[in-house]
Amino acid sequence: MQTGGAVVGALFSGSFAAYGRWKCLIYCNIFLLVGNSMSLYWKNLPILIIGKFLYGISAGAFNVFCPLMTKEMAPK
């Protein structure tokens, strides 16, 4: 499920970059925390699957936003 979430996160994160990369990274961290806590404290299988999917979305979005932030912050 993480791989499917990473594909979704990577595909749709480019359109959200217009709102600001810093804000998008903060939202990715929120998805990461929610997904990890759902995976950690799961009581039934659907909660675990949703948590892993949210974690995958944040991982895919991080793969888009982190290189962009590094490119902006690095000296020429």
Written description of the protein model:
- The chain is mainly α.
- The chain has one domain.
- Helix content is 84%, strand content 0%.
- The chain is built from 3 helices and no strands.
- The longest helix has 29 residues.
- The protein starts with a helix and ends with a helix.
End-to-end gap? 39 Å
How many E-type strands? Answer: 0
- Overall geometry comes to elongated
Rg on CA atoms, Å? 13 Å
Low-confidence stretches: none
Task: Output mean pLDDT.
Answer: 86
SSE series: HHH
Largest sheet: none
The number of helical segments is 3
How is this structure best summarized?
The chain has 76 residues and is an all-alpha fold. It contains 3 helices and no strands.
Mind sketching the topology for me?
Blueprint: H1 2-16, H2 21-40, H3 45-73
Helix pairs in contact: 1-3, 2-3
